[in-house]
Amino acid sequence: MQTTDSLHALFPAEADIPAAFRLAAPVEQTEYLVGGELRHWDGPRQDVFSPVCVRTDSGLVQQRIGSYPLLTEKKPCKLSTPPRAPTTAGGAAGPRCRLPNALRTYRTSCSA
User: Fold this and answer.
1) What pTM value is reported for the model?
2) Residue 76 falls inside a structural domain
3) Which long-range contacts link 71-76 to residues 24+ away (Cβ below 8 Å)?
4) Does any domain span residue 96?
5) Is 66 left (phi over 0), alpha (psi -120 to 50) or beta?
6) Same domain for 36 and 65?
7) Where are the alpha helices (DSSP H) in the chain?
């Protein structure tokens, strides 16, 4: 039991965390990035917990610090546009630009 008590003592109580390092509220990320554009997400989200436990009366607890959109591979594909052709600094198509191949790859990856 002494080992458990000494391990619990290594973790701070919430009141012992300096105010500068406490989150005022969880960070709820509701946007995701597709093709350089931020889009709002109303679907399911994944909770994020701090890797550092906080000591409470009931034991050590990982605090929830926020959430992020739980996207699937299909969702962004259906909403995004085909990939843009690579360009040079002047805006002209790059020497290895094969747009038909890029479009074929895009359609194949999003149709599954």
Assistant:
1) 0.57
2) no
3) 71/32, 71/41, 71/43, 74/110, 74/112, 75/43, 76/32, 76/34
4) yes
5) left
6) yes
7) 2-9, 74-79, 99-111
DSSP-derived 3-state class of residue 6: helix
* Structure tokens, 62: 């990982």
DSSP SS3 for 97: coil
The SS3 of residue 69 is strand
Q: How far apart are CA 80 and CA 64, in angstroms?
A: 31
Question: Do 63 and 98 have their domain in common?
Answer: no
Judge whether 55 and 11 are in contact, CB under 8 Å: yes
Q: What's the pLDDT tens digit per position in 56-69?
A: 988 899 999 999 99
What domain range includes position 47? 2-70
Six-digit token string for 91 = 């805006």
Residue type, 31: E
Residue range 5-52, pLDDT digits in tens: 778 888 999 899 999 998 899 999 999 998 889 999 999 999 999 998
| Cα of 5 vs its chain's centroid, Å | 35
